[in-house]
Every structure is written in C-alpha cells, then in structure tokens.
Design brief:
The complex is a heterodimer of chains A (421) and B (157).
Chain A lengths: L19 E3 L6 H12 L5 E5 L8 E7 L2 E7 L5 E5 L14 E3 L3 E2 L6 E2 L5 E3 L25 E7 L2 E5 L7 H5 L1 H10 L4 E11 L3 H8 L5 H4 L1 H5 L8 E6 L6 E6 L2 H4 L8 H12 L20 E8 L3 E6 L2 E9 L5 E10 L4 H10 L11 H12 L8 E3 L17 H14 L2
Antiparallel strand pairs in A: 1-19, 2-11, 3-4, 3-6, 4-5, 5-10, 7-8, 8-9, 10-11, 12-18, 13-14, 14-15, 15-16, 16-17, 17-18
Helix pairs in contact in A: 4-10
Chain B lengths: L2 H20 L10 E11 H6 L6 E3 L2 H13 L6 E7 L3 E6 L2 E14 L4 E14 L6 E9 L3 E3 L7
Parallel strand pairs in B: 1-7
Antiparallel strand pairs in B: 1-2, 3-5, 4-5, 5-6, 6-7
Classes of the chains: A alpha+beta (421), B alpha+beta (157).
C-alpha cells in the first residue's frame, strides 16, 4: 500500500498525505483548467453513456468528457466511435441534438462536413467560386479532422478517452470494480428515462459526497427513520489499487433481525413492520419492498469510476450518473435510469416506484443536491486552510467498516497523482 | 355541464392547489386528490419518448401524505418558498364525471437568503373527478419543459 507520506507538498497542495484537503482546490480557475487538461482529457476513462442509446449505424449522442463537448457515434460496421463536438474550421458545435442519426456531420456555419470517424470530407467552396477565392492549394483536408476519442465498453457502458496512454479499461478499473459493474449490468439494458440535477458546487464535492459512507445515515434521515441503512448493517468499502474507484455496499442483516428467516424477504417485511409502528411510519410501505434480483442480498451498491461515473443500485433502482463540470462552482449530474429488456412487469414497476428514493426529489438523495453548495458558499475566507479527512485512518485501502473516509482519501490519491500536485 | 362550466371548476381547483403549496399548507396538498389518484413529475423529453421514469412518482394519496411527512420530519433542505403562476386551463375532455384539462405553469423559488430564480416551467395534464361535492384531482401529470432541476426538488410542484 502506498504510504500517505509519499505525497510531496506543492504550491497547489501545501501539505503531505491525503487527510488534509486544501479548500482552494474547489474554487481555483487554474486548478479547473489543469483538471480539464491533465485529468479529463488525460489518461482516464470517462463515461459517455450506454451502448443501447446508440443501437443502429449512424446513431449518435452528444455528451461530455469533463466539460469538453463530444459526440458518440455508432459506425456503419457497428463499432462505436467518438470525437470532439467542435468543427475544425471556426470551432462551432457540430451536433446540437442530444440524440440523432446521421450519415455525415456537417457544420451549420460553413458546411464543413465530417464522416463518422471525424475525418474532414467536405469543405464548401474549397476551390472558390468561378475560379476566385477558395482554399490555398496546399490545404489538406486530412490535416483538419476532428480530435478523436478512444472508446471502450464494459457490460453495456461506454467510456471515452482522449489520451492514447490510457490503460485498457479493465486494467484501469481492476478486477473488483469490473465484477461489481457486471453485477448491476448483467443483461441487455433498457433506458427508463433521464433527468439532470444542477449543483451549485465544484464537481469534486459531489464526487467526494458519493464516496463518503460516513454521512449516509446522518445527513439522510430517511434512511435511519425507516431503518433502510445503518452503519451497523453488513457491508463494506472496496477501494481499487489506484484509489480512484470504489464500491460501497450494504445488505440487510438477516441474522440480526430474523434468524429463522432465510427466504430473503423477511427483512423487507421486518422493515415494513417497523416502519408501520414507528412514529414516522409510512402510510404506503410498498416503497420499502423490493426484489433480491441479483441473488446476493445486497440492497445498496454505490460504485464510482474515476473521474466522472457513479453507478447506483438502491434496492431495484438502477442509475448511471455522469458528472459534468460546468465551471469551478457548478456541476451537472446526468441521471440515466435503466432496467433490463427482460424485466417482468412487476420488476419494471418496482424500478419506477423506487426511483422515489433517488434523484433531485429522492427521499434519500435530495440532500446531496444541497450539501455541496453549503460547502461552496462557505469557501470565502478559507485561504490556506484544509478540510479534515481522517475518519478510518490516513490510508486508502478497502475497509469493512463504513464509518470511514477511506474512499475519499482514495480519490485524492488518484487525483494527486494524475494532477501531479 | 358544458365546457364553460367545467372551466370554472377546474380553474378554481388549480387556484386552490397553488395557494395550498405556496402558503406552505402542504398537509392539505394530498386532500386535493382522490384516494387512488396518481401524481407524477415527468419532463417533455421523457414524456415525448414514452420514457416512464418520474422525478416524483406517487401512485395514491397515501404516498403523497408520506412525501409530506418525510419533508417535515426526515428530509433536510434549506427553507424555500414557491410562487405558482398557473395559466387559464384548457378543457381537453369530459366524460363519466371526469374532466381532462391542461394548464401551463411557472414556479418562482425564493430561498431563505432572498435569492429568487425561475425554478421550473411546464404544464399540468390533469384528470379531475367532478362527481363529488368538491372537485378532486384523479390524476396529475406534471410535465416540465426542461429536465434540468436546480439543486433539489423538495416541495411538490
């Protein structure tokens, strides 16, 4: 394991280790530019969407790598391609629609056009008009293609990278993360709908929040009020070798609640019973039901892939969340709710019902929309100060206890390395 | 009853609805629905494509009451108020004691520090039960023009 003391102090990060995070990282324009260049456009895999969003040749989706606009395209041969969504001529957006189908990509401004590989195939009036004007003779279209993305897929997820030095996706993720991704994406997918939540805070505050199991049962009172998740529940934190990716999971503890029950449903019944008799009992406890669809008793799995993917299972609610930075103090979270093509009616309906837990109006996630902004608004005056990330020690290894900030330290471990700060 | 008469009933219910939410009389909000009514928030993008996800998806009045209980007792969010501006409703159908109506709305959100934003705009696709002594929503589908939500959506729209 990497020792925390190997991190060298820099002008950006004036201390060693991972337990004291400078507040200046959340509102510094220079850091933001450096993140775009070194981190998002560097050797990282950035989630672009789902394969099922672009099923047919010519289908495209506009999205982002960090805050850089890009296009994901399904080619004629069925392979996935991607390139910057910016004309090589004057820099205008090429595609405006969120989804579409095109045989070629033509800029509306001066009709420069590109094929599915991002090659420049046409320049309007390249030879001028009536022998006058036009491009110089030495203009070569092959020198003005669009910057391409490297594409990799895993279990229906699509990732892109601008950097040829990015490791193969499965090496980048490590075996634990790969198997936990497969766990919630075992079959062909179906999108159930989208929404975007705009947060008035730096993107890292959201990513840290998602990697922070310490707050879950404290800030999110719905969890504790209805006993949906307690830190004493069985579960754990897995942090990969790089530190950047993590999985936090928990399961209802059968033995503690009902030792004789092994049907897998007893805990849900118990949960309903308690909720019924609690002071704040639910009048419609069907929300607390669910199906053990992956046959492992895990009712909550939050998985992150550095730097911008959150893959969420809350009971039967499954979501791909993409983090899109929009400036130092603004972040969009794009929520793509999904199920599987072969979901039976009951399971399909459970996913919609349990979506009440998540999203901007979610019973157990609405607070996450505000807490980052509470930090952002309190940044003035922090100067050279740091936050304290010492819960569970100073390392970034996997832990069984969820009373820990190990996965936040893991994030900063990966961040310091790639940012070289 | 002719369409003009329904118009008055529907407009009155919508005015009461806006007043109920905007005056923080949220405990009364579910009482404006029938017991089996549904309340769902969708977006134009999802609605046009038949994508079924709801930002809120309440399938009966009990679920609406649960939402208010959670808002009051469990969920944590900064104090804020809404101001609804609802258009004249358009009656789109009427049969068997049920009236279908559509109305446009804007919601301005005011935070405790005084900052104000146009929070959301959209349309209500309502089905109203007019068979009883007072009209009640039997179904309310809220379709937002944008699918971007600023920060969080705690109070119902």
């Amino acid at each position: 394991m990497t020792k925390a003391s190997t991190y060298k102090a820099t002008t950006f990060w004036p201390n060693d280790g991972l337990t004291e995070v400078p507040y200046s990282l959340y509102d510094d324009d220079e850091i933001y530019q450096r993140e775009r260049e070194r981190l998002f456009m560097g050797p990282t895999w950035n989630v672009l969407g789902l394969e099922c969003e672009v099923p047919n040749p010519g289908d495209y989706k506009t999205t982002f790598v960090g805050d850089v606009p890009v296009v994901l395209v399904r080619g004629k041969d069925g392979s996935l391609k991607g390139f910057e969504n910016r004309c090589a001529h004057r820099g205008a957006l090429l595609c405006l629609e969120r989804f579409g189908n095109a045989r070629a990509f033509t800029c509306v401004y001066h009709a420069w056009s590109y094929n599915e590989d991002g090659d420049l195939t046409g320049v309007a009036f390249q030879n001028g008009v009536n022998g006058e004007g036009g491009m110089p003779d030495d203009f070569k279209r092959e020198e003005h293609g669009l910057q391409r993305l490297y594409i990799a897929t895993l279990a229906g997820l699509v990732f892109g990278s601008f950097d040829a030095k990015v490791p193969p996706l499965e090496d980048y993720l490590g075996p634990d993360i790969v198997s936990r991704i497969h766990r919630v994406l075992p079959r062909p997918l179906k999108v159930l709908g989208y929404y975007t939540q705009t947060m008035r805070n730096n993107w890292k505050l959201y990513f840290e929040n998602v990697k922070d199991p310490y707050h879950a049962s404290i800030l999110h009172l719905f969890f504790t009020t209805f006993r949906l998740n307690r830190l004493s529940q069985k579960g754990g934190i897995i942090v990969d070798e790089s530190g950047g990716h993590h999985v936090s999971y928990s399961m209802l503890d059968k033995t503690a609640n009902n030792p004789k029950d092994d049907s897998g449903d007893g805990d849900y019944d118990n949960a309903k019973l308690r909720a019924d008799t609690d002071e704040f009992g639910l009048k419609a406890p069907a929300l607390l039901g669910g199906r053990d669809e992956f046959d492992d008793g895990i009712t909550l799995q939050i998985l992150t892939v550095f730097p911008g993917l959150v893959l969420q299972q809350v009971r039967n609610s499954l979501v791909v969340r993409q983090i899109v930075p929009r400036g130092v103090d603004r972040t969009d979270i794009v929520w793509t709710n999904y199920g599987f093509e072969d979901d039976d009616d009951e399971l399909a309906d459970l996913r919609l019902l349990q979506a009440n837990f998540i999203g901007p109006a979610g019973y157990i996630s609405m607070e996450d929309g505000a807490v980052g902004a509470m930090i952002q608004r309190a940044l003035p005056g922090t100067g050279g100060e740091t936050s304290v990330v010492k819960m569970g020690g100073d390392g970034a290894a996997s832990q069984e206890s969820r009373a820990t900030e190990t996965s936040i330290r893991g994030f900063w471990k990966a961040y310091r390395k790639i940012m070289d700060i | 009853m002719d369409s003009a008469a329904y118009h008055g009933v529907v407009a009155g219910l919508l005015a009461d609805y806006a007043h109920c939410i905007d005056s923080d009389d949220l405990e009364r909000w579910p009482a404006l629905f029938t017991e089996t009514a549904s309340y769902r928030i969708s977006t134009e993008f999802n609605h046009a494509r038949g994508l079924p996800i709801g930002i809120i998806d309440a399938r009966n009045r009990n679920m609406m009451e649960d939402r208010i209980t959670a808002l009051r007792k469990a969920n944590i969010y900064e104090p804020q108020r809404y101001r609804h501006i609802i258009s004249n409703p358009r009656i789109t159908g009427a049969a068997d004691g049920l009236v279908q109506a559509e109305a446009a709305f804007l919601v301005v959100r005011t935070m405790i520090d005084g900052s104000q934003d146009l929070f959301v705009s959209g349309r209500y696709l309502d089905e109203i039960d007019v068979s009883g002594s007072q009209p009640l929503f039997a179904r309310k589908l809220v379709v937002l023009d944008s699918d971007k939500i600023d920060t969080l959506l705690a109070i119902p729209l």
